[in-house]
Amino acid sequence: MASLTSALLYLDDVQVAFDGFKALRGLSLMLEPGEMRAIIGPNGAGKTTMMDVITGKTRPDTGSVLFDGGRVDLTRHDEAAIAGMGIGRKFQKPTVFDSHSVADNILLALKGPRGPLSAWFGARNRIEPARIDRVLEVVRLSALRDRLAGSLSHGQKQWLEIGMLLAQDPKLLLVDEPVAGMTDAETETTATLLKDINRDHSVIVVEHDMSFVRALECRVTCLHEGAVLAEGRIDTVASNERVIEVYLGR
Amino acid sequence: MITLRLMRALAGREQVFLALLAALIVLVPVGNLVMPPDSVLHIPTGTVVLLGKYVCYAILAIALDLVWGYCGILSLGHGAFFALGGYAMGMYLMRQIGTRGVYGHPVLPDFMVFLNWKELPVTWWGFDWFGYAMLMVVLVPGVLAFVFGWLAFRSRVTGVYLSIITQALTYALLLAFFRNDMGFGGNNGLTDFKDILGFPVQAQSTRVGLFVLSVATLAATFGLARWLVGSTYGKVLVAIRDAESRTRFLGYRVEHHKLLVFTLSAMLAGIAGALYVPQVGIINPSEFAPTNSIEAVVWVAVGGRGTLVGAALGAVVVNALKTVFTTGALAPYWLFALGGLFVLVTLALPQGILGLLERRRAAKSTAVSPKAAE
Question: Which helix (H) or strand (E) holds B50?
């Protein structure tokens, strides 16, 4: 098992309550550097809340959320700071900048200084187009470079958002339901894409599509009522009695 | 060379706009000072002053478009920054009156003598020096916007809530400036100006000079704003407008970006107010009236938000309409007309007049070459 000092992400006994409703009750999770992890679980299991806690949107009531071998306490930082430390997030509903071109979406996401002056007349205006092109190639959107992001199809928007994550070059990518609303072919491409990305990034994927999760060939964690129900290889988790009962169905 | 390259980077409408400003700078002084009064090409001094007012409003509109059109911050209190810049200029002009006031006091403006004050309040120190007054024209609105923005954006006050507190801000200033003991002339404000930098403000040549200066400032304001929105910073602002939390999760400190554009915009509004006051000859608390700020939003909406040029166009068109309406038998109906215009534009012309013009042109060009659009 991973230890605190070797873990990229370390969640221990995290509790979050909204108006008395306990979204997370003692969630513990550990992610090794370079690992890909799929998170499954029924609606309300706390998957999105977990992402909110990791990215600084929600502050946990108790418990520790540590990053980078326990060196950083994520509960003490806000969204922008956490993004700067190298945690990128893709939302469940694809969120791109509709009135910007595909290339400009990547331009804004690319790693580098993020202050207003840098954007006005500093480094961000001197970003080489080749850096944008490289990202677009990975997410297979090179041909749509100058299209407005708002005119992309649902699947293409999902890829663009993954591309924006890649451009940030984070240590950890959090990907919330990347294949929701995708065709089978698109789903397959996305699985290959995420596996490619996983070569040099750690990834957490939240997904309902079991065939997609299977295609990722990674460790799986099943959440239920704000805590871990089962964890391990997909076959082990999928054959777990409780998992079948609360999530997969008979 | 640089000018050429710059012109090529600008859209057609922006080139037309700058050409128009250049024409105004040449034609209006010629029309007023050179053409004899009986010539058809003569421009009366009253018209020059009126146009100068419109130009100041256009500067305010561009400032407002920066925060609203590009960054999505609907400020309903920009009139406050305009008025503060105007007051700073008014205070300089008051100090220039010297002993020519009704009471002939060497230091104190008339209203202070009337209130039986013995010495100049600290707030007025230094305003006899033009450089200091000009610094205050940008500094006072800038600092207020910075402090206000710091508190509001850090607490993530957005949308209609932010609009409401900007209204409250300008209303609070309205009430404060009405008070005599604030030391800014109470409800009469500041007026009866004599000189600006040694030139008599009422003189025809000074009025033309102020007009030219206003147009040049409008061009410079447009240039600055265009540079800003054309840079990646402009793209960040639009990103914040369209998907604020996405921008934040990309690692941008949204509050810092908002604060910079809001403060800059307030300073530009202050400059507009400072140019406005010597031309109209008075500044009083009614400039803080919440309706003034709302009218400025209507100008931007009518012209076309998020285009800069459209904002300036809207300011001129709506104010020209206002002049026509309020000087005739239609005067009681002006506010109805303004409200109706706002409703009409919101429902029928979401991109304003400029959007309509460009749609027309686009439709025409596709009609000529339907394949070119593909």
Answer: helix B45-65
